[in-house]
Amino acid sequence: MPTVVAFETLTELFLNLKKKYEEDTKKTAFARKPSSDEPYETISWDEVAGDVQTLSAYLVRHGIEAGDRVAILSENRYEWAVFDLALQLIGAVNVSLYTSLPAGQVKYILQNSEAKMFFVSTGIQLKKAREIFEDCEHLNRIIAFDKPNIESYLDGPYVMLFDEVMAEGLKLYPQLEQEIDNRSKAVEPEDLATLIYTSGTTGQPKGAMLTHRNIVSNIKAAHQMIHITEKDRCLSFLPLCHSFERTAGHYAMMAAGAEIYYAESVDTVAKNMTEAQPTIIISVPRLFEKIYNLVKKSVEEGTAIKQKIFEWAQRVGQEYAGGERGWVSVQKKVADKLVFDKLKERTGGRIRFFVSGGAALPPKIGDFFMGAGLHIIEGYGLTETSPIMCCNTLGDERMGTVGKVLPGVTVAIQRLEDSKIVAEMSGEDYPTDLNSEQGEILCRGPNVMEGYWKNDQATREMIDEDDFLHTGDVGRFTEGNLQITDRIKHMIVNAGGKNIYPGPIEDLFKTSKWIDQLMMVGERRTYMAALIVPDFEALQDFAREGELRYDSTEELIAKEEVQNIYRREIRNQSRELASHEKIRDFRLVPNEFTVETGELTPTLKIKRRIVEDKYDYLIDDIFDNDD
């Protein structure tokens, strides 16, 4: 599907959208909630254009030149979009940070990028900015979107409120209009558009340099694979500082003329889905896992008849999704009315499809949603590939794979043992009979980053002399679709020298109502084990029904009745595994892994080394007698 306007840079994308909709003053671009109790407030392209021009005038007047870096520490919100588009308009570079970062890491990124201005959202983020301001020599001012509760946070000539900035920019724009126009015309596809700092588990983060060409090529390729139109509406809640949401949920939606509604927060997504009634939601697998487990829990707590109806509806849904028609079509309508329509209502009732990325989607959960008539398009990529390398297409979803290679992109499989490329596929050729052995996934194409900011060594380690980017992921081609196995660095080598990839094994447990999170351990050990974060709500219900008394979470998870639940779950799921893959022991963890406490990345992937260090006493206890 072609984009609604032609463009070769992100600057042209904004300008051509502005021109296209300048006569349609009611065309919605974005929507936000003024407060939790109020309905969504829509913002037209006409208003967006005015705000972007206003902010760009302020930036130009206060010394932001083409190529200068300007940083932002904010949740997803309308001001984030205005900030980004204003920078693209004048050829500056967006340096966006995760709101969960501590002040020390914020300081490092600002120092490394040599950012000149720093935009922040709430008082919490303003406090971080003030703490590190004096240590960032290139930084000359902080601009806060929200007025903080603590007035002293605004003290100092270098702190301003966004409303003040916009008021000044509005007065400046008429006299700077020509300069801004000249700046916008000077932006080239090869120019740097953004620095996205990767959230590694060790060492300092690295700034991936993505040009206008990198991102634009990815937007256009994605549009050839996925049908998005002006009638679509996307609910945005994944961090915009991550390349997945930036390209897929921000630029690609704008390029289609679709509406972008901002969720109040990650915690309010369920509520905001029913209010915004989106047609597209871009998410990580965690959302689908939670929805699935909530539905499963509701069914298990229902009557025997309700459970049988649900099981029947699932079978019918799977048959229908697999292409069966005739009598199955009639049954599917009944299944929808009895079961699946209720699930669709929870998503707002208008979903055309979900897009899943950032981590592997467990096939069982994907099959459940497909059977319900809620399509999930799974994709794959890295920050360094802008980010999409492969994706499934609507109507041709292959659960357990991330689909086919994007147009213009080449993906290869390199054998781990001898570094030989054993398979290669370009986005212009889709041989459905292509099957390959397993190896590291490589990528080459216009979407591959220029390199890491001020880090030539890391760039050379990532991109080889043939311009292939080494992803660090292991996978294979199966019937022309790419299948991800795991990360190379996640591979566990047991005491017998066998290689075990934990990702697919951990996925088996994500459909258990008793398990919220699970991480395998067993490097150089004689058997595999796991750290398990229980579903504490399910456990509390169990304790209440069984009249188990406890004074703390630690006391609850230590009870023999609770331990027996997890012994049973581990035993049942491990039946499908090879002998060396089976989980033989486990320990329950009393706290959930979260972004805030450091065990998860902002896209909700487990930081294995952090978890291993934090719970080393539990791991030691498991293997205490393992020679």
Note down, in words, how this protein is organized:
With 627 residues, this protein is α/β, with parallel strands linked by helices. The protein has three domains: 10-224, Rossmann fold (3-Layer(aba) Sandwich), CATH 3.40.50.12780; 281-349 and 351-489, Rossmann fold (3-Layer(aba) Sandwich); 491-622, ANL, C-terminal domain (GMP Synthetase, Chain A, domain 3). It contains 20 helices and 27 strands. The strands form five sheets. A nine-stranded mixed sheet has the order 2-1-11-10-12-13-14-15-16, with helices on both faces. The protein has an eight-stranded mixed sheet with strand order 7-6-5-3-4-8-9-20, with helices on both faces. The chain has a five-stranded antiparallel sheet with strand order 18-17-19-21-22. β17 (410-414) and β18 (421-426) form a beta hairpin. The radius of gyration is 25 Å and the shape is globular. The relative contact order is 0.08.
What brief labels describe this structure?
627 residues; eight-stranded mixed beta sheet; nine-stranded mixed beta sheet; 27 strands; GMP Synthetase, Chain A, domain 3; Rossmann fold; alpha/beta; globular
Provide a compact summary of the structure:
The protein is of the alpha/beta class and 627 residues long. The protein is 39% helix and 21% strand. It has 3 domains: 10-224, 3-Layer(aba) Sandwich (Rossmann fold); 281-349 and 351-489, ANL, N-terminal domain (Rossmann fold, 3-Layer(aba) Sandwich), CATH 3.40.50; 491-622, GMP Synthetase, Chain A, domain 3 (2-Layer Sandwich).
